[in-house]
Amino acid sequence: MLRTLLFICISIICGISILKAQTNFSDFKTLEGLWRIESSFENSFEEWKYISDTMMLGSGFSINKNDTIVNEFLSLNITKKGCFYSAKVLKQNNSTEIVFKLIEQKNKIFVFENNKHDFPKRITYNISDKNIIIATIEDETKRFNIIMKRIF
Hints:
Elements: H1 2-25, E1 33-37, E2 44-52, E3 55-64, E4 67-79, E5 82-89, E6 97-106, E7 109-113, E8 122-129, E9 132-138, E10 143-150
Antiparallel strand pairs: 1-2, 1-10, 2-3, 3-4, 4-5, 5-6, 6-7, 7-8, 8-9, 9-10
């Protein structure tokens, strides 16, 4: 009887945790769309597509005259081990995927971290309103912001 009650309690707690992670992932839906990176020297963009309740895919690219140049492939995934932001930046890190774990999520601010990576160690997406994202890229000594405005 006691084992059965313990099993039921653990199942309920695990179920609530999984449901909470899926609910929180819905906050990422705000990222879906095309975003223009505010920069004085380049036409750069980030685009996100909602795939499922546990996955979004994105890309970073530039437009130079009539050419579209993809710079990076991005993803957001929820697994049993947590929520992860992955970036595969072409011509950096031998074009291998770098994975950052979500360590904080609050009020449409998402903080991802990978202390084993050289730079950046932390990426923060602050969706200050539905049409503006401020991405902060940083480590212990360097920090810069990227402002993105929604196109659609």
